[in-house]
Design goal:
Helices cover 62% and strands 8% of the residues. It is α+β, with helices and mostly antiparallel strands and 381 residues long. Strands 1-2-4-3 form a 4-stranded mixed sheet, covered by helices on one side. Strand 1, helix 18 and strand 2 form a beta-alpha-beta unit. Helix 5 crosses helix 15. The longest helix has 23 residues. It is globular and about 70 Å long.
């Protein structure tokens, strides 16, 4: 299913920025794939799909420490791979997929091997990605709770080093985005699962049932929500941390189910069935998102619009013999990935998809026009 999605997507402006912007480990990872397979959508998204497959394997291995019954671990894995946020991180090139894999690898190494390997892994994380700063922050608090001074000092050093290398993002004027963040989290996990997730974390706080996963998930969730009171938060950096709480959610749900007599388990079965049905509905909306254009009033308000249009637009321009255009910076960077470079020979001007003005270039999905533009030859020499 993920492989089939590749043909449905275009490179986004943010993905183009990752490929062509400042050097990063993720850029190196993606460009290595492009070097091997060529500059195309398959090469662009294959590394993220591979990371996702490895994450799913690690997720199942870790679940063995939290969920006793094998079929329940399979159900938990199904829930994991159906989460809209996880599906998105598996095909979209951003830090979310890398951070999620990194967190699962750290938890697996920490729980199954000598602590010295965790030190090496954390040092590597500090060097390759700014998004792991929340992990260091969580481990500082975890070390305080465990009274592990050596681990505390190491993670404090990693935290400060990460801030020194990558800085702190305090862009924009203070403005509250708390409700927006709650809504995004609910979309990433689906509403019922997110509410139950929040309940489990709070319940474990009341019962003082703390462990590594609780600290990582709770610190990241609370920090992102507190930060959202001041500015818009890039939740792709924080959602992977909260995903780790799924192990605790499954553990709590399984325990609550098993301690009850058969006659009192019916409400838990229905709760799971309804949650899974809604999850399937949400994941279907991600997989078949182009059909939603028929019900969205303004195409640009579609949640996937930023990863659509560019590929089809480049194909349309090439079919007319146009290999380069002058247009806005965001679209120009996207078109360049598909071989339509920058020049002053042709001017590409977008107009509203709902506009009545005539246009000579249109992109449609499912019989709905989602992009309209005019291409003008401005170099007659």
């Amino acid at each position: 299913m993920l492989t089939l999605q590749i043909s449905e997507l275009s490179i986004s402006y943010n993905e183009a920025e990752i490929l062509n912007g400042d050097f990063s480990f993720l850029q190196l990872f993606i460009n290595s794939s492009i070097l091997f397979f060529g500059q195309n959508d398959f090469a662009l998204r294959l590394p993220m799909i591979l990371l996702h497959l490895l994450s799913a394997m690690l997720f199942y291995k870790i679940s063995q420490n939290y969920v006793k019954i094998q079929r329940n671990r399979i159900w938990l894995l199904i829930v994991f791979i159906l989460l809209p946020g996880v599906i998105s991180s598996a095909v979209i090139v951003n830090s979310a997929g890398l951070i999620l894999f990194g967190l699962l690898l750290f938890v697996y190494i920490y729980e199954n091997y000598s602590i010295k390997y965790s030190y090496i892994l954390l040092l590597f994380y500090m060097l390759i990605e700014s998004g792991f700063v929340a992990l260091f922050m969580s481990l500082i608090i975890f070390s305080l709770y465990k009274k592990n001074i050596k681990f505390l000092l190491f993670n404090l050093a990693m935290f400060l080093s990460s801030l020194f290398i990558y800085g702190i993002d305090t862009h924009g004027s203070p403005k509250g985005y708390f409700l927006d963040s709650i809504g995004i989290y609910a979309a990433i996990f689906s509403p019922i699962i997110f509410v139950y997730l929040f309940y489990v974390l709070y319940r474990r706080y009341l019962t003082k049932d703390f462990d590594l996963l609780w600290f990582i998930s709770t610190v990241a969730l609370l920090f992102s929500l507190l930060l959202s009171f001041r500015q818009r938060v890039a939740l792709e950096y924080f959602a992977p941390y909260v995903i780790l709480s799924l192990f605790l959610v499954a553990q709590t749900f399984e325990h609550s189910y098993r301690v009850r007599l058969s006659m009192f388990r019916k409400k838990y079965k229905w709760a799971f069935i309804v949650s899974l049905a809604l999850l399937l509905l949400n994941s279907s909306a991600v997989f078949f998102n182009k059909y939603l254009y028929s019900v969205v009033g303004e195409p640009k308000k579609h949640f996937s619009y930023k990863i659509h249009v560019a590929k089809e637009l480049a194909q349309e321009l090439k079919s007319r013999g146009i290999e380069c255009v002058k247009t806005d910076a965001k679209m120009s960077g996207r078109l360049e990935f598909y071989g339509v470079t920058k020049c002053n020979n042709y001017l590409l001007e977008e107009i509203s998809a709902n506009s009545t003005k005539p246009s000579n270039v249109t992109i449609s999905y499912k019989n709905r026009i989602v992009y309209s533009a005019n291409v003008t030859n401005i170099n007659t020499n």
